[in-house]
Amino acid sequence: MKKLINAPDAVLSDALRGVQAAHGDRLRVSFDPAYVVRSDAPVQGKVGIISGGGSGHEPMHGGFVGPGMLDGACPGEVFTSPTPDQMIEATKAVDGGAGVLHVVKNYTGDVMNFDMAAELGRGENIEVETVLTNDDVAVEDSLYTAGRRGVGVTVLIEKICGGAAEDGRSLQEVAELGRRANANGRSMGMALTPCITPASGEPSFELGDDEVEIGIGIHGEPGRFREQLGPASQVAERLMAPILDDLPFSSGDRVLAFVNGMGGTPLLELYVMYAEVARVAGERGIQLERNLIGNYITSLEMQGCSITLLKLDDELLRYWDAPVNTPALRWGA
Amino acid sequence: MKKLINAPDAVLSDALRGVQAAHGDRLRVSFDPAYVVRSDAPVQGKVGIISGGGSGHEPMHGGFVGPGMLDGACPGEVFTSPTPDQMIEATKAVDGGAGVLHVVKNYTGDVMNFDMAAELGRGENIEVETVLTNDDVAVEDSLYTAGRRGVGVTVLIEKICGGAAEDGRSLQEVAELGRRANANGRSMGMALTPCITPASGEPSFELGDDEVEIGIGIHGEPGRFREQLGPASQVAERLMAPILDDLPFSSGDRVLAFVNGMGGTPLLELYVMYAEVARVAGERGIQLERNLIGNYITSLEMQGCSITLLKLDDELLRYWDAPVNTPALRWGA
To answer: How many CB pairs under 8 A join A and B?
Structure first.
């Protein structure tokens, strides 16, 4: 295992020291329990939004904390759910009196702990709503999951709900918007290589020299099948067909296309993939009105990519376009 | 070799198709000769700025084309210099009557071809100035290089010169600012793993299972030495000491610190590295006033990082902070 770390059990706290050193002007870092909130939290009268999950998926979620997106994020150890005490402390830190939204990816540990944190929040008279993301069409149940896994649409929902909260919308409205985005979003991923968690020191799975896993999860969970790596055009079709057929997306739909790198994939290859995604979408009469291309929801150094399509309406589009100012996503602000 | 491509000889044109599909609203793509310019080029009365180099270092340079940074970029094949005809066509496309700046990394092919393009430009009555970047302290001469290699400071110079050009500064002023930034910037990189170019299909070099190369170049060129991988704190010291001693940087200096990933390094690890960079800088009394952390000047899927320090003055800082709106760097606009 080759990693730029000091010790496997220090990765999270060391990375948080880096976040504090780099972004201390705009983020406030708590080490115990571990969470990050925007430095002006809580914003009075605004709905607060937090998310969280295991580390190793950076920039998700800590890189999305700031005006126009998340108010706070709770990082667990690598590929391990954060604990309810992290979540309740972050919830309290971002509560400006208008309630707090929890954006939760559908993994058993995350769901259970966020449920507990929501209960604890209500016990402290904080109104809490939850948006559960489950956009991964690859498999119905999986390691760590009952039902579909939450993946790429989470990034889009955090941006859209963040825009709506900044716009003064109510907790109910922001939560409904997030649920609508989840209902209109579908994803699927694939891997060229496994990743290695610092604690295990071993690859998360084995793949042959010319083999890929179609439908991979963001912790290396098994997907739908393995096959010999084909050209990018074939990879795009393998991922796009199940996504397009599932919602289903139809000719004339306005869509945001998100081509995400798993952490170790060169940006050059993600643009090759985007060309193929645009081609397949075009063949179905689907208009890609917005896009996001890069490493945003990653699996450490895994090579591979995922595709997320989100069917847009005017309101989703407006809040996607709204100003955002976070370490990883920044525009118009 | 596992890559998300259609064919080794189609990588560049396929990636450019992706750039056109994704960013056609803000960039204009020419396929033959290959270059990318901002869609409103040429901007009348503004100094035009172009750069270029081999592909495989994305987002550099194409991801930096847009208001506040580059007017155009010329991508060569992977790790191969672009040709003079790409450069002269891009130069003409961005010439708004105030002259054109070429930002050139110090590699023999790039230098020779940009020299030729500058001559061709003058032959067409376009005033051309060149800023040559050579900030890599690792080695004096190298594969492909007489003198030091141009690396991370190139990204910072493109941003700073772009800000100055947008502010209406003259070609001479923008060029002098770029040269001052180069004189005040120093970098060094390291690799955990090699990369594989699509054309060769073979690793660019071999490293032992626990070995790293200190002083690596962005094409896998040899560095200063190899050693067993130590903790991130040691890696930071290995890179920071030669950088700090070379300028030299002194107590009280105001510095921009750029921790760059080589393409395959998780962001989590780059933040661990930033914590160590901030620690070493602090021990020397150096104030990190700005930072940039992420994969910006890469070597395909290579794992590793580089550190660039730029000594700031008020003018460099002002143009670093100025609005920028490109696919890869965007703020305040």
So the answer is: 183
Q: Could you tell me which chain B residue has the CA closest to the CA of A212?
A: B2
**Distance (Å, whole) CA B91 – CA B128:** 9
Q: Is the pLDDT of residue B143 over 80?
A: no
pLDDT at position A144, please?
Answer: 80
We find that the CATH architecture of domain A186-311 is: 2-Layer Sandwich (3.30)
Judging contacts by C-beta atoms under 8 Å, the chain B residues touching residue A58 are 266-268, 271
Return the bridge partners of B211, or none: B228
Interface contact flag, B4 A273, Cβ < 8 Å = yes
Neighbouring CB atoms inside 10 A of B237's CB total: 17
pLDDT of residue B145: 81
Per DSSP, helices labelled H in chain A are 11-23, 84-94, 108-123, 153-166, 171-183, 232-246, 267-283, 314-321
Calculate how close chain A gets to B13, using CA atoms only, in Å: 9
Low-confidence ranges of chain A (pLDDT < 70): none
Q: How far is B56 from chain A (nearest CA, A)?
A: 7
ipTM over cut 0.85: yes
Cα A193 → chain centroid: 20
Q: How confident is the model at residue B171 (pLDDT cuts 50, 70, 90)?
A: very high
**DSSP-based three-state secondary structure for A55:** strand
Task: Check if A102 is active-site.
Answer: no
Distance CA(B170)–CA(A186), nearest Å, equals 50
Residue-level pLDDT at B94? 98
Q: How far is B271 from chain A (nearest CA, A)?
A: 5
Could you tell me how far CA A176 lies from the centroid of its own chain?
Answer: 18
- Cβ A267–B298 below 8 Å, yes or no? yes
Question: Domain-by-domain residue ranges, chain A?
Answer: 13-184, 186-311
CATH topology of domain A13-184: Rossmann fold (3.40.50)
**A-interface mutation test, from B193, B207, B259, B267, most A Cβ less than 10 A away:** B267
Q: Quick check: pTM over 0.90?
A: yes
Contacts of B238 in chain A (CB under 8 A): none
Mean pLDDT score of chain B? 97
CB < 8 Å to B11, chain A: 268, 272
pLDDT value of position A193: 97
Size (chain B), residues: 333
d(CA B266, CA B285): 29
In this prediction, residue B144 has a pLDDT band, given cuts at 50, 70 and 90, of: confident
